[in-house]
TrEMBL record:
Entry keyword set: Membrane, Transmembrane, Transmembrane helix
Swiss-Prot/TrEMBL GO biological process terms: cellular response to mechanical stimulus; detection of mechanical stimulus; regulation of membrane potential
A single cellular component GO annotation: membrane
Organism: Vigna angularis var. angularis
Protein name: Piezo non-specific cation channel R-Ras-binding domain-containing protein
Ranges annotated as spanning the membrane: 12-36, 57-77, 109-130, 142-168, 174-192, 204-222, 250-269
InterPro entries attached to this UniProt entry: Piezo
GO molecular function: mechanosensitive monoatomic ion channel activity; monoatomic cation channel activity
Length: 275
């Protein structure tokens, strides 16, 4: 169960925080999530790395909360005209003004940072005392068995769905960026038909994992509240980048979700979440 916190809970909180607020601060959350996923999918992901993950998330979430506290203190001293005059840079960095329920997503973003800080402290506290007492007793109970059972079923489901998700990432939004997913899916299907080896479909996952991580970062940077020059917009459009909004086409939403799901599912298949 202790491995559940750095292996699943903390990365999911980072991902949620990055999706709730398009900003530079959330970009750091996203990059931390991708790094944890990529590191966990490699051999040698052990306790000391999980311990570093907990400390890193604690520092990142604590700095985020501290910077927001300083922002609101300065805002209270300078007045509303200060934030209005510099609203663009504040929005780009990720500072959020909390007004009752009018900034609901912003409040949820701060809540995820608080939860990430709390879980990091819990994980570090458990590791510091070597989990000799109540934490080990808690992990050895029915809840730990229940989590292990879910993990095994989740891996089986990912094994069946990953080829379909990879293919959807390649054909949902046709572009140069998604073209490698389509090519690798086609090669995998041909390999499977010739050799009758289902594992041939997963032959290219290592390369696609690294490639997909960069795609997610570039797509996220394009969502930031930055006005790009027309030339850059033209280049981004022809390569396959797009803005995600309430008016986005279903193919764009499907492409973004399938890309993110592919990255997560590869991590689940190639690294144990619960040691």
């Amino acid at each position: 169960m202790a491995r559940f916190i750095p292996g699943f809970a903390l990365p999911m909180l980072l991902l949620l925080a990055s999706l709730l607020n398009w900003s530079l601060i959330s970009l750091l959350d996203l990059m931390a999530f991708l790094f944890i996923q990529y590191t966990a999918s490699r051999k040698g992901f052990r306790v000391h790395q999980q311990y570093l993950i907990s400390w890193s998330v604690l520092m990142l979430s604590s700095l985020t909360l501290l910077s927001h506290a300083v922002f609101h203190i300065v805002l209270a001293i300078e007045g509303d005209h200060w934030s209005t005059a510099d609203a663009q840079w504040a929005e780009l960095i990720g500072f959020i003004r909390v007004h009752s329920w009018r900034t609901l997503l912003g409040e949820h973003f701060l809540v995820t940072q608080v939860l990430a800080t709390f879980l990091s402290i819990v994980e570090i506290y458990g590791n510091w005392f070597d989990q000799n007492l109540w934490w080990r007793d808690f992990c050895s109970g029915h809840l730990c068995y229940f989590v292990l059972l879910i993990g095994s079923h989740l891996k089986g489901t990912c094994c069946l769905l990953l080829p379909a998700v990879q293919l959807i990432a390649g054909i949902s939004h046709v572009s140069w960026i998604s073209f490698p997913f389509f090519i690798c899916s086609s090669i995998g299907l041909v390999d499977w038909s010739w050799t009758s080896n289902y594992l041939g479909i997963f032959r290219w996952w290592k390369y696609l994992l690294f490639y997909g991580g960069f795609n997610i970062i570039f797509l996220y940077i394009y969502q930031l509240p930055i006005e790009f020059p027309a030339t850059f917009k033209w280049i981004f459009f022809h390569f396959g980048l797009f803005k995600i909004s309430t008016s986005s086409e279903w193919s764009e939403v499907c492409s973004g979700l399938s890309l993110l799901l592919f990255y997560i599912m590869v991590r689940i298949l190639n690294a144990s979440l619960y040691y």
